[in-house]
Specification:
This protein is an alpha/beta fold. The chain has helices spanning 32-45, 50-57, 62-78, 114-119, 141-152, 160-173, 180-183, 205-208, 211-222, 224-239, 251-254, 269-279, 295-307, 323-333, and strands at residues 130-134, 156-158, 184-187, 195-198, 201-202, 244-248, 261-266, 313-317. The protein folds into two domains: 1-92, no CATH class; 94-333, P-loop containing nucleotide triphosphate hydrolases (Rossmann fold), CATH 3.40.50.300. Bound molecules: adenosine-5'-diphosphate and deoxycytidine diphosphate. Keywords: ATP-binding, Kinase, Nucleotide-binding, Transferase.
């Protein structure tokens, strides 16, 4: 299949050794050099600090890391960001430090301003703004979010797992929608995968994709009270971030109607089905469930087309695109 990743999956270890999903970031080693060259050039043009670029390379194996640093050094030597320092590891965010934002985590607070973050060496001097990624299941939304978040040093919020957490925990425990924020904590940090905690304890992926979640997810997604409670929780997080990437099914119309970029991502149904099959190849207990575009997907797509100016929207069919090509296309579509 042409759209299948050719380079194989790699585990990417983030600075605090949090491991991103193996399937999240896939590179074709043959094309690594040009991939990084193009990506780095574009990011450098936009003034991203080298330390964030360097963090992309932290988990790569040696040849790929070398290729990345060669590209980075070349771009920094010749490009607009040549005066910026090259550091190879960003300071690891601490649980209550300025890189952490949660909803109910003790000590968590709003992001500092970009200027304060730049002064602390934590963030790019350039705001990417808020970006949304909507689309049907297995279109590659979460993968794109992780790529953008990791490459740009931005926090990423995946809204789907909140629906799953409600289905796995709140519904079986009889928690009403109005109490959700007392029980569920969402922690997002620049460049790192998000954490969901139920009453302070990390929720395992096996719970999010387990039979209880599967049995209740349809009810949660179809219940306007739950949708409102979940949306409020996510809106609270979005309000704390000037730059963030948010993934879901209706993020553009309900959460980020004035985003820097609203992306609608899709791919043909058989391709999405194959992607999910590959993704769950080592999890035979997880159902491979891929739908045609739902009414909600179509409504979101239509909303973006109707309400967002051309510079702020991207409708991308990824059927024949590799992950790195999707990431590259989106990075090049960020206005500014
Ligand atoms: N462009 C692509 N080509 C091939 N595989 C992809 C592509 N984008 C994502 N994938 C793979 O497809 C699977 C589903 O992607 P995911 O990001 O979880 O989709 P979504 O969040 O839209 O449900 C993952 O295993 C991912 O690695
Ligand atoms: N913004 C959102 C995010 C997810 N949902 C729904 C859609 C799915 O049924 C569940 C789980 O989301 P998830 O992102 O895991 O979806 P898939 O497994 O890709 O179908 O939540 C939603 O209705 N609105």
């Amino acid at each position: 299949m042409t759209s299948a990743p050719r380079g194989g999956s790699r585990i990417v270890r983030t600075p605090d050794d949090h491991t991103l999903p193996t399937e999240a970031i896939t590179f074709d080693p043959q094309e690594t050099h040009t991939l990084f060259g193009a990506l780095v050039a574009d990011l450098a043009r936009k003034g991203v600090l080298a330390l964030h670029l360097a963090s992309v390379a932290d988990g790569l194996d040696a040849p790929m890391r070398d290729a990345f640093h060669r590209d980075l050094a070349r771009v920094l030597a010749t490009g607009p960001a040549r005066d910026l320092p090259v550091e190879h590891r960003p300071p690891a965010p601490t649980p209550d430090g300025p890189g952490t934002v949660g909803t109910a985590l003790p000590g968590a607070g709003p992001s500092p301003t970009p200027a304060a973050r730049t002064a602390a060496g934590l963030a790019p001097p350039w705001d990417f703004g808020r970006m949304s990624i909507d689309g049907p299941n297995a279109a590659g939304k979460t993968t794109l979010m992780l790529g953008l978040a990791h490459a740009l040093g931005m926090p990423g919020l995946d809204t789907g797992p909140t629906y799953r957490a409600v289905a796995a925990h709140a519904i079986p425990q009889g928690i009403p929608p109005t109490d959700l924020a007392h029980h569920l904590t969402i922690v997002i940090r620049p460049g790192l995968a998000q954490r969901l905690l139920w009453r302070g304890i990390d929720i395992r992926d096996d719970d999010l994709f387990g039979p209880r979640a599967g049995a209740n997810i349809g009810h949660v997604a179809g219940d306007p009270y739950w949708r409102e409670a979940i949306r409020d929780l996510h809106a609270h997080i979005c309000a704390q971030h000037r730059d963030i990437v948010v993934v879901g099914r209706d993020v553009a119309p309900t959460l980020l109607s004035d985003a820097t970029l609203n992306v609608f991502l899709t791919a043909d149904l058989p391709v999405r089905h194959t992607r999910r099959e590959l993704q769950w190849a080592h999890h035979p207990e997880r159902p491979v469930h891929v739908d045609a575009l739902t009414e909600r997907d179509l409504a979101t797509r239509a909303w973006i087309a109707e309400h967002r100016p051309q510079a702020h929207r991207l409708d991308l069919d990824t059927t024949t695109l590799r992950i790195d090509q999707v990431l590259d296309t989106v990075v090049h579509s960020i206005p500014g």
